[in-house]
Design brief:
By secondary structure, the chain is mainly alpha-helical. It contains ten helices and no strands.
Length: about 240
Amino acid sequence: MSPSASSLRLVAIPLLLALVAARADDAAPVPAAIATRWAEIGHLAAPAERAAAYDALIAELDALATASPDSAEPLAWKGIVLASAARAGGGLAALDRAKSARDLLLQAVHRDGHTLNGAVYAALGQLYYRAPRWPLGFGDPDKAVEYFRQALEIDPESIDANYFLADWLAAHGDDHQALIHARKALAAPTRPALALADRARRTETETLLANIEERLADAEQKQRHGGFWDSAVVRAFR
């Protein structure tokens, strides 16, 4: 895979949905309207218009960061929106922007790990989960899982952390635990400011859940048939 293709794969992740686990309100350093606008850009804006719209949102977040220099929220949001901008722009620059997004999220965690109700950990997890590994990128699935679990310690209902942890568990052969987290993701309450993002994640979760349930059903059927033939062989040689 070429560096260009890898960078496109990185920024194509729906990582940015992770940040929306926050229960933001207008009294917070980052108003809830920012979350709504971010979701609308990603799900409703024409692809050709997204890069400019994200850049405008980043400029607003810079102003919010200046107004609240000790707050972790503007840094977390800027990191997420910057990653979205990388996705919209694509190309080789996408990896650099994704790294900058990661650095901002890490700064936000350093200031307040509970910011955005722990969703900053889910966002970091998605970056590490989907990014190309060294030497092209900083991808590290094991580190990603650590971040997903940290997010769930703060918000057990996190739709994003539950979804991605389920995806990782399923990929590593633990369908029973994957089933638990996929069902939790599907049952997560809808966040009014982020209904578009939640709807997209639920669609992904439904597909993942169906695949997990199908594999578990196949495994159960094979086990049942295997047990039948084992018993038949034992009876035949008595």
